[in-house]
Amino acid sequence: xxxxxxxxxxxxxxxxxxxxxxxxxxxxxxxxxxxxxxxxxxxxxxxxxxxxxxxxxxxxxxxxxxxxxxxxxxxxxxxxxxxxxxxxxxxxxxxxxxxxxxxxxxxxxxxxxxxxxxxxxxxxxxxxxxxxxxxxxxxxxxxxxxxxxxxxxxxxxxxxxxxxxxxxxxxxxxxxxxxxxxxxxxxxxxxxxxxxxxxxxxxxxxxxxxxxxxxxxxxxxxxxxxxxxxxxxxxxxxxxxxxxxxxxxxxxxxxxxxxxxxxxxxxxxxxxxxxxxxxxxxxxxxxxxxxxxxxxxxxxxxxxxxxxxxxxxxxxxxxxxxxxxxxxxxxxxxxxxxxxxxxxxxxxxxxxxxxxxxxxxxxxxxxxxxxxxxxxxxxxxxxxxxxxxxxxxxxxxxxxxxxxxxxxxxxxxxxxxxxxxxxxxxxxxxxxxxxxxxxxxxxxxxxxxxxxxxxxxxxxxxxxxxxxxxxxxxxxxxxxxxxxxxxxxxxxxxxxxxxxxx
Length: 502
What we know:
Largest sheet: 8 strands, mixed
Number of helices: 21
Strand content: 15-25%
Helix content: 40-55%
Mean pLDDT: 83
Number of strands: 14
Shape: rod-shaped
Distance between the termini: 61 Å
Strand order of the largest sheet: 5-12-11-6-10-7-9-8
Structural class: alpha/beta
């Protein structure tokens, strides 16, 4: 997994990761709340060997005491000490069960033995630690006062109390902080793992690289997401000044993308550029009609004569997008009801852009589009104009593939983050089955953010407009921080010039 994919997972699924991490932390807290509270008290004893006459003797005695204290670790867990504590505290339990509540440690390079006692209450832990130290001292005195034959003898080794136990204020188990941290860490890892699995199972097209790897066809255009095209029902009168400025900049960005697409089409084959182009997609609602309208306007604005045909005979709508009449059109020409000049409608004042509406809905759209009459009409229109055909999607019906086979090829629209790899493969297979040619793929509705845009292969536009317009525009161009720095630099430069003049 590349760094770009990790960044994409974190950017798109941070809320899921945070939610699972919060759930894990809550689970840890709930588990800790259900556990019985245990308290731990600590007391310590020290092993001594009596007074020493000089420093050398003291060092030898200290080393001897450290060696002896290690041998007393086994006495800590002995049954004799446990019985002593049971008798002293009047406990009703077995020695083996009581021994499990005791642990012992020896600090490094010391003759100190530290006893840790755990009980269900602070007072119980305190009493248990104190009694255990007392029992251990008693047992050490008994062991050290016996010789090899089991007779009583004097010994220089003694164990005595060093530090009494204190009443614990907080339970030693469970630790709420550890439970929350552990639960949150597990949740964090589980959230990322879940997001990674969903990311891998998500077959939607996410990048130019994926499109080209799957299809083997070049991406000849990337069209940015435009909020104005998706804010249906919001007229210009209801916009704020900030919204109007945002839409204007987005439109300029979109126009530049269409100009780049136009240039790529013109240089696709310099000697024999395509003049009859079908614009289609795998599924509906991927932006083919909008792309057809905008591309036609951009081509006409460059001085190219363009004729747009509404080839979607099942769902007409291109005439309305251009603002022309929806009456007679393509189907009426093909059945010889009307002449071409009677239904070919101009758009704009230049006379370079014309629209041929779909006409009456026929019962056999595929047969009409595959007829000799339609091919003759295309030959006639493409003699002195570039013909763009808005075709139906490739998966639901065969009309788009038939049109692609009758023309120079098809531009296939792929909606970023929506079209799946499987849909694209099937669409290209349907196109190839009837010898249709794919001129290229256009990636539509590409995010403009730097993180998303660069991943979709679209970072050029943000850098270009950031330098050209020199102003903050959403996530494209300069960031707010950079804009503030630039303003400060300008103010300092102006002040420096003013001072130098004076």
